[in-house]
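Two proteins, back to back. First:
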Amino acid sequence: MANYSHIKLRPRPSEADFEPILREAVGRALRGPWEVSKADGDDDGPVWRVTLSWMPKDKAEARQYGVSLSGPFGFCVGLQPGSIAFRGAGLNYFLHWAQGCVTEELADHFKGRVTHDSGDKGYKHGTREYRRGSFYGHLARNFNPPSEEDEQYFEKQFHYQAPPGFWKGEEFG
C-alpha cells in the first residue's frame, strides 16, 4: 500500500483482534453512518475500507467532491508487519480529516507514535490535531471565533467537500 502515515506496533495484533479495535476507533472518532469492511486483496497484510454509504450520483457531483464514481467514499487502513498503515485519502479534505481522526484514535489505543512517509515529522499518541469535534471545528480551530470573511472562505473552499449532513449545523456536523 502506498502509505502516507503509519503507527508502529509491537507486537502486531492479529487480524481477528484488529478489526473490532478499528470499528471501535471509527465509532469514537467519527459521527454518522460510517462502515468498516474488509477490502479485497492483501497488501503486506489485510486492508479495511472505512466508508460512508453515500456516493456521488453523477460525474459532476464526483468532481465537486473530488472523488471517484467507481469506488466507495472513504479511505483504507492496512495492518502491515510492524505497523498500521494509512493510504493518502486523495484530494478530498473531508476524507483527509476523517482519516486523521481515526489515525489519532488508533494511536491512542495502541499508545503508538504516528509517523509520515514524507519525513521525520510525527506525533505521539494523545495528539488532537484532527479530533476537535466536527470537520468544520477542525477547519475553524485557529479562529476564535471565525470572522464573516473566514466563514465565507470555509464555505467556498471546504463545504462542497463534506457529503450531505456533515457540514456545521447539519445532522452529523
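And the second protein:
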Amino acid sequence: MAASTLEASTGFSAPPDWLRPPSPEIRPPLLGYTALVLGGTDGIGAETAIEFARQGAANVIIVGRDPLKRDAVVPQIQEAGKRSGTQVFSVLADISTREGVALAIDGIKGIIEPDSVFMQEGQEVIIPGGEGLAIDALVLAPGITEDEFAEKVTFDRHAHVLNTNLIGPTQFAIGLKNAKLFAPRASITALSSIVGEITPNHKQIKYAGSKAGLAAEMEVLAQEWAQDGIRVNSICPGFVDTRLTHKMLNEPRVRKALLQFTPMTRAGVPSDIAPLIAFLANEDTSSFITGGTYVVDGGLGGKAPAIYEAFMNGWDQLDIDEKMAVKALREAARAAAEQPITE
C-alpha cells in the first residue's frame, strides 16, 4: 500500500504492509461510521482522518482553524475513502476559546442533524439525515507547544496552551455529549504524549501539563460515561515526525540519539498512530476497552527511566555516547524553543 502524502514527506520508513488494515476486498472495519477528528487538518489528526476513510467510514468530519491546511488534507481523505463513498466535511474553529468551542459544536450540529442544511465554502449542502446518524468516533488531536523555562512563562501564555491542548478539547467533548450528538456506543480517543505521562522535558511545563491533564480527564470521562456506552481512551505517542517535531528530529545529533534510545531504531510517523486510533474506535474490536492510556513510542519510554535515573544520580554514570545523546537532545530542545510551533 502506498504511503500517504503526510507520511512520505517525513523521510522515515512506514510500517510494513502486513501491519496495515485489511485489503479493500474485505469488508472495511469502520463501514458506515461517522468519525469526527478535532485537529484533523494536520499531523496525526489528519492521518487519522485519512485512516478512518480508508477503513470505510461513511462520514469524516475534521475540525481545524487553518483553511489552507484543511484544503490540503480534504482531497487525501476523499481519495482514501473513494471505494466506500466517504463524505468529507470540515468546520473551521479555534477551540482555545469558549466562543470557538461553541462555534465548532454548532458546525457539527449543522452537518449531522437530520435533513440539515450545512454551509460549506459559502454553498448550501443538504445532508440527508435520519434516525441513528450521530458521532460514532471522536478523536481529540489538537496540540501546540511553546517551550520556555518555567520562570519565563506568563499567565496568558500558560493559559493559551492549556486552553488549546486540554480545556478546549475536553469542553468540546462535553458539549457534544450535552447536545446528544454521540451514537449509542461511541468512542473517544485523545492524543496525550509521553512528555506528559513518562518523560517530561525541560522548557515544556505548559505542554507536559496540558497533555498529562488531558489523559487524566479522559480517565474521568471513561468512568462517568461508561454507563452511557461511551468508551474513552488516550494514546501517548513518542517522537513522531510531524510539523511540530520535524526540524528537531532531522537534526543529525538528535536523530543519532533517538536511534540509540529507541529500541525500534526510528522515529514514528503519523501512520504508526492512526491505525491504533481506528482500532479503539471500532466497536467490534474494542467494545470492552475504556479508561486506558496506551504508549506508542517504539520502546523509548521503557528505556528512558534508566537513562534519566543514571543522569539524576550522576553525570559520571552515563557513558560517552549517552552523554552526547543527552546533550544533543537538550541543545535541540533549546533551539526548537526559540520559536513557538503549532500543530
